[in-house]
Predict the 3D structure of the following.
Amino acid sequence: MTLTHKALVLPEQFGKFVVADFPREAPGPGEILIKVQSAALNPVDWKIQKWDGLMDGYPAVLGSDIAGDVEEVGEGVKEFKKGDRVFGQGEFRKTRGAFQQYVVSSASTTSKIPPKFSYDEASTLPMALTTAYSGLYSKPPNGFGLEAPLTDAAVGKYSGNPIVIFGGSSSVGQFTIQLAKVSGFSPIITTASLRHADALKDIGCTHVLDRNLSSDALNAEISQITTKPIHHVYDSISSDLTQQIAFDILSPGGRIVYVSFPTVKATEEKQINFAYAKLTIPPNTEHMPAFYHDHVYSFIEKGWITPNNIEVLPNGLAGVIEGLQRLEADKVSRLKLVARPQETD
């Protein structure tokens, strides 16, 4: 007999979301089954619906940010047991998305949740944190290739080096700021709406500049902050406009990380990198399992990484539909929308 549960299903390519019964998978070797208590939304979810790509077929369950309880462990899994509170990132596979009541996940990319944090808070972390971490610490052409702060010697290693982060109030931007602080970067300069300036300084940036500044105006502001060359620019927005401005302010010999496919071309003096959010492809398969499995718990517990602001959507999985519409309309700022699948009627 096939077990089923409630899921937010995309029945076909470019289809409309519907809450429906969906087969419940059993965990295989090295996997765990998670009872999903909280699932956060990301812009990629509505983009997949509109433009396709990433998924391996339909009907599909989308969603990348998972927090919940271990329901069952697969063969060989020793570090988790039934009832453990965990979080992790959904895979871009039609049965492995977050928007369902139960989901199978790899144990190697799952972390326990520190006691002081809720499911809702933990669910705001995975996809944006993966993107920020990968862009900073993956080897080129997917990141800057910095040494990750996983040892005492690496913490603060880049002290005195400036970094500019576009879109500091975005989820990826906020985690990039926090990781850059742990790595020692200073000054940490970000572009954002100035109404978020105090909050962004609280998590580690030293200067917040108006996101609407032109290349020339931004360069002028940066030159008042530091006389050192800008060799690291992380564009967590990566629109056509921000990509060009980021390229303009980068100093010769520097690197940019984009989170969307580049629309500008690298030169001999300015290199371009593209950060992947997917856990299941290189280069993330090389370093993300160790980060999630062995280090991310302590990063959160120490306060090096803090969860995003949260708005809980009503009506369980049904509330995701309206939430994705708000994301598409760009009506969400410095906030993660979170659904609770177990509250689905």
Observations:
- The first strand starts at residue 4 and ends at 10.
- The radius of gyration is 20 Å.
- Residues 43 and 327 are 6 Å apart (CA to CA).
